[in-house]
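Next up, sample data:
>
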Amino acid sequence: QKTHLKTIRLQYQLYLLLKSHFLCLLKHEMGLIIIFLCAYVPKTAAGHCKWAEVLKDLERLKTSQDIDVTLYTANTDEDKECQEPVMRCFFLEMKVIVQECYIKKCSKTQDVLNILKNGNARLENNKNSTTSAKCKECEEYEEKNFTEFIQSFVKVIQKECK
């Protein structure tokens, strides 16, 4: 959030500068550079990975010693058109981990809940997208242990963030 606020602050300062000196800026090289920066800054802010928070929590979850489950683990090399169903599969399996954590009172329950909250918020934005018939259902994937599941989940998210 701090990065986002800094970007907004910079954009606002550039806006004020442009508003007061727009015509003068067009006549000078420095003015053109400032106009370029105004156009470029919003694009860099939008380029921030929407899964960054989920990725951070997954990294913390990797070290958990008290979660012992087998989970359907989607392939990390699925077609691009199957990315959304793959993500949904991982988040469905996170619900299984939440239940496991409630039963065993595991130390990383809050990280799991954060992943679900942040992930579901991101997936809500894509609710209307269609899924290809060639994409697998979650239950069609191989069951793997918790460590392999988290490693695959991290790879899929990293792939999304590129």
Notes: The first strand starts at residue 70 and ends at 72. The helical segments are 2-27, 29-46, 52-61, 83-104, 109-124, 146-161.
